[in-house]
UniProtKB/TrEMBL annotation, chain A:
GO terms for biological process: transmembrane transport. It is found in: Cell membrane. It comes from Chelatococcus reniformis. It comes from the Bacteria. The chain crosses the membrane at residues 20-41, 77-97, 104-123, 154-179, 215-238, 258-280. This is ABC transporter permease.
TrEMBL record, chain B:
Keywords: Periplasm, Signal. NCBIfam families: TAT_signal_seq. InterPro entries: SBP, TAT_signal, TAT_signal_bac_arc. Pfam families: SBP_bac_8. It comes from the Bacteria. This is ABC transporter substrate-binding protein. The keyword Protein transport does not apply.
Amino acid sequence: MTSSSPSRGKWSGWLLVSPLVLVLVPFFVLPIVIVLVASFLESDGFGGLIRTFTLANYGGLLSSKLTLALYLETVKFAALTWFFSLIIGFFVAYFLAFHVRNQLLAIGLFLLCTVPFWTSNIIRMISWIPLLGKEGLINTALIKTGLIGQPLEFLLFSGFAVVVAYVHQLTIFMIVPIFNSMARIDRRLLEAAVDAGTSRFDVLRLVVVPLTKSGIALGSIFVISIVMGDFFVVKVMSGGGTASVVGAFYEDIGVLQYPAAAASAVLLTLVLSALVLLILRSVDIRREIAQ
Amino acid sequence: MSKDTAGPSAPARSDVAATGEGLNRRTFLKAGAATAGAAAGAGAITGFPTIWAQEIKDIELRHVGVSYSVVKAIGDQASKDLGFKVTMQNLDTSAAINRFVTQPNSVDIADVEGWQSKVATRRGVIQGIEVKKIKEFDNILPIFTKGEINGHKIPRQGISPYEAMYIAKSDATELNDGVSDWMTFLPQVYNADSIGYRPDLVGHEVTEWKELIDPKFKGKAAILDVPAIGIMDAALCFESAGLIKYGNKGNMTKAEIDFTIDKLIELKKSGHFRATWTTFDQSVQLMAAGEVIIQSMWSPAVAAVRVKGIPCVYAPVNIKDGKEGYRGWCNGMALMKHLSGKKLEAAYEYLNWYLSGWQGGFVARYGYYSPVPSTAKTFLTPAEWDFWYEGKPAPAVINDPYGVPMEQPGAKRDGGSFLERVTNISCWNTLMDESAYMNKRWNDFKVA
């Protein structure tokens, strides 16, 4: 470490990056490469891979109407979840950052937001079922008060239920980065805007939103990639009434069709990477965070 | 520098751990085996003369499979009776077969269905079970050794256990038709699945599969969402309604798959299905929470609904005019290829223990059957035997395996006696030749 040769900078650079490389190569790069290779092989129908190069897995995938239907369905859930978690997440963060004057209280309330996340995702999702069911709390209450005669069936085992569960699970991923961005905003900017006669709405629109773009972008990446990579919530909350991209290739794995599943996984990775790139193009997160 | 000290210290530490564990386990062992083993060093016998207590105490068998077949209470009892440790690990059907195929060394005893044993055999991850080492083999019901019972041929639509049970040599990769010296898996538990319904809300007795797709149950029906077997339940419905006649429900042609899925999509679009379910608990919840009043269901799930005080009946769908019938399934134990020496001997002891009756009695109390009912009978009260196997009215209160009262005196098992039920199985759980295509079409149904 004490050597002062000219290559020192280069070597210490490699040394610094080595822990990350040691983690990423075996646990990220290698699995992805294996999946990529498998997606070009044939299946023997019994979980074995036949080592002949084929494009049939991608051909089948890209020519199937099912793929389109699955992506439409998954993108629909991702978009709805993104929208609602953004709205709720933004205003919760806004309240915490700007309306709670006492910083200790703000942090306390912020921690309170994380309390539901001390239990598992699955429990939080499943606890919606007795609430939303045909004989659940909401329907029972509505029937008893005479507002409806028949239970509302759309509440459970529906797209509605799926979105409710996702928003409940994922809003925290919006709150955290947005709150973080807002906390960095210089309060004097807001005061200056108000002094200059800007309405509260315009302050929000013209000052706060642009300055929290990086938080919104980060939160969006979390929410969209989690929804698109999930199948369990869709399966349970839709009552098996609809499918998802991941759910479909999980079924392929269930019957040991590894190459077909691998091709689906590669396609999803590409689609998600494109989405993330698109988000990153609109916001230079690295610059914003470094500020 | 630190490398030098890390080297020797690592094994030393693991030595200490091993000794500590050994001592701990010894205190848990049954008194006789432990003291004899510790004192004499060798020569102590627990009642299984082939294995020395000293040598078995550190053996651990990992029995892996689905929750309704690989049950912790059974593993605990086996550990107690055998003197070595059995660990039960649960996975769902598809995760289980994937683990057997891709990480065979992480499993000792694979709990497989007939079709899974076919896959595992083909992949060469299991070794044959030597028939002559299975003590109760001659008492195993002819369903498994001859493919028949009481002169009734067990149908072979789908993959019947008999069909997937035998191989010619220990390391064969193809199945053998008929009894040989080697088995792929030893059956341990099986049953016949049909429909569960709420008699109070359906209003009449259900004995045919077509009721499940009857428009009058629109929005109140559910079907099983495990593609390989869900499609068979659907096929039973459509055949029952006279819409189609399948060549083999357990191995459909592409055209038959298309017909079945298109019909399912039609039903789904008309709002017929309230939901689909994948796990035992989901099916219980759907029925108990009033979401559905008729659905394809497993017999213990029906019992679980009844335990909650909600009326629920398991439909007896006896075969008539070549239609209807139960969908049968059977789980059994396969020995993974890596087992050898003492561990293999312990595995055989474990297999033999399974057929010796305790397990048969245990599973009978939630409605499942043993391949050797003669030994299970010795672990059941006469009342239990009459109720579960003979299909007679319960002479006394019937408890579930954990002692919770389940049926009142006078209650009768839905579907009747063991013989009546098993002779009305018309197809078995399977993996079709066209499974990849079927899966894609099933997803069409899901996303429709």
